[in-house]
Amino acid sequence: MANGIYKLTPLAGPTDSNWDRATDQGEIIVRASSSGDARVVASEAEAAAAGKDPNIATTQVMASAFRDSHLYSVQLIEGAEYPKDGPREVLSGSFEGGPSGPRAADSI
Fold first, then answer.
1. Are the CB atoms for 31 and 84 separated by under 8 Å?
2. Do the domain assignments include residue 101?
3. Cα(94)–Cα(107) distance, rounded to whole angstroms?
4. In what order do the strands lie in the sheet with 4-10?
5. Domain boundaries, position 86
6. How far is it between the farthest Cα atoms of the chain?
7. Is residue 108 part of a domain?
8. How far is Cα 61 from Cα 44, in angstroms, rounded to an integer?
């Protein structure tokens, strides 16, 4: 299956109670095989960036906001600046600085 470039964008508002159970990481762009795979790529990268024990990382992947359609939307980007060919990976965005989306100010 050919890869595409997908943008994951926070969908829920900053006061949405769903953010209480997951971290808002802001907008992320990934190369993936589908919109569902885009959610997996982003959540795996988020867990890897946390540098947790593999058992904890598995739990973090499953609890990631990227996997929740109420928290993040996924959109295929046509004509993206990134090539479709290549590995499944995060192309833009960062997990290292903590939350950067609508709830970022709440975490300070």
1. yes
2. no
3. 16
4. 72-76, 4-10, 28-32, 89-92
5. 4-94
6. 42
7. no
8. 6
SS3 89: strand
CA distance 10 to 24: 7
Q: Name the domain count of the chain.
A: 1
Q: Is residue 107 part of a domain?
A: no
Beta bridge partners of 74: 8
In this structure, is residue 104 part of a structural domain? no
- Predicted structure pTM score: 0.79
Paired strand residues for 5 = 31
Judging by beta carbons within 10 Å of its beta carbon (0-12, 13-18, 19+), is residue 31 exposed, middle or buried? buried
Write the pLDDT tens digit of every residue in 56-84.
655 556 678 888 888 999 999 998 799 99
